[in-house]
């Protein structure tokens, strides 16, 4: 990818998204919005805060890179001030670091981590900030959280380096942005552990930090639980990187009857041996899914809008069989390259997950 960065990335317009808890957002907004107004005026960056009474909110900062750095500096120093104020009323003696959470498209995380974790290690060492890339994606999105913590100065240096990486490696494919959901009663799901796939670490850039422990079947986000997006993550990474994974049948398929037809060694060879510059497309294959009748509507959408969206985004052909008498399930046939099929499955699973958990549509 040709670099678009000039003079270390200065004066390039960029958008950075931050994930904040309600209390942090309140601190940024200030009384009658005075703090955020001052930040906008002094930094020259556009700062937008997502609406809603959610436990989490998205703060979007847009502008030339130097304006973004100023806005980040003001946010980091504001958070440090909050920490100092809260410590004056508590017996704690050691000052906790300032922590910010960036939301980054999953397709850019590989560049941020670097081969064998080299880039993230370099950023940590040169800035003194702690940087961690989440192993799985935020619910119903193709974005991951990148947590930065340290002194305000270390955080500013760290953000500068992350901006340069993001400018040099633009996102690939369509990004489904993370939208925090309103607080709701906790939904707890049955099911024990989802085994962490030992192969995931060796394929592509998944050995992010340390090997993560086995992941639970659900994750608490804010005040609610969601099914662990482990399987969706793998499917999406496959689509993004065109790197074959082993069949996922053994990792608790999200829905009964789901089979992955990605274990043909010929397909694997075609994918693995394909240089990035060539147009050699892997052979088309077919994959079948079985979906309960009562969930088919959320995949088709009103007048077929959702299924058409999934077809367009994935590039796969998707056929839904007519309902057969006496059967409580419908057959979905997906045709395309393994990458197309995986992305289609990922999008279908995301729709099902949002429907089953009542978390609202994507």
TrEMBL record:
Entry's Gene Ontology molecular function annotations: DNA binding; RNA binding
User: Taxonomically, what lineage is the organism?
Assistant: Eukaryota, Metazoa, Chordata, Craniata, Vertebrata
Gene3D superfamilies from the UniProt entry = K Homology domain, type 1
- Entry keyword Cytoplasm: yes
Any single GO CC term annotated in Swiss-Prot or TrEMBL for this entry:
cytoplasm
Specify whether Cytoplasm is a keyword of the entry: yes
UniProt source species = Rousettus aegyptiacus (Egyptian fruit bat)
Domain K Homology, residue spans: 12-80, 96-167, 283-353
Localization per record: Cytoplasm
Instruction: Enumerate the UniProt keywords alphabetically.
Output: Cytoplasm, DNA-binding, Repeat, Ribonucleoprotein, RNA-binding
- What is this protein identified as? Poly(RC) binding protein 3
SMART domains reported in the protein's UniProt record: KH
């Amino acid at each position: 990818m040709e670099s678009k960065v000039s003079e270390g990335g200065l004066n390039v317009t960029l958008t950075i998204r931050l994930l904040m808890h309600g209390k942090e957002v309140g601190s940024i907004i200030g009384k009658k919005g005075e703090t955020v107004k001052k930040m906008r005026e002094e930094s020259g960056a556009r700062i937008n805060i997502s609406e809603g009474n959610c436990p989490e909110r998205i703060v979007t900062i847009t502008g030339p890179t130097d304006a973004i750095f100023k806005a980040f500096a003001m946010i980091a120093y504001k958070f440090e001030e909050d920490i100092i104020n809260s410590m004056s009323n508590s017996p704690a003696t050691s000052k906790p670091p300032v922590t910010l959470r960036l939301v980054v498209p999953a397709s850019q995380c590989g560049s941020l981590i670097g081969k064998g974790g080299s880039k993230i290690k370099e950023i940590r060492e040169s800035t003194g900030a702690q940087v961690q890339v989440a192993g799985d994606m935020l619910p119903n999105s193709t974005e991951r959280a990148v947590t930065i913590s340290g002194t305000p100065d270390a955080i500013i240096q760290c953000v500068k380096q992350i901006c340069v990486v993001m400018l040099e490696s633009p996102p690939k494919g369509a990004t489904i942005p993370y939208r925090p959901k309103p607080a709701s009663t906790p939904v707890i799901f049955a099911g024990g552990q989802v085994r962490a796939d030992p192969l995931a670490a060796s394929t592509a850039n998944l050995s992010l930090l340390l090997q993560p422990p086995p992941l639970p079947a659900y994750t608490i986000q804010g005040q609610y639980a969601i099914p662990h997006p482990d399987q969706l993550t793998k499917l999406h990474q496959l689509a993004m990187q065109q790197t074959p994974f082993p069949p996922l049948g053994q990792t608790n398929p999200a829905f009964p009857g789901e089979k992955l037809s990605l274990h043909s060694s010929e397909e694997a060879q075609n994918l693995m041996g394909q240089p990035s510059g060539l147009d050699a497309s892997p052979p088309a294959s077919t994959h079948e899914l079985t979906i309960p009748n009562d969930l088919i509507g959320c995949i088709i959408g009103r007048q077929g809008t959702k299924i058409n969206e999934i077809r367009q985004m994935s590039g796969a052909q998707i056929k839904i069989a007519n309902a057969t008498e006496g059967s409580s399930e419908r057959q979905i046939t997906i045709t395309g390259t393994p990458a197309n099929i995986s992305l289609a499955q990922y999008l279908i699973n995301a729709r099902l997950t949002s429907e089953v958990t009542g978390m609202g549509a994507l």
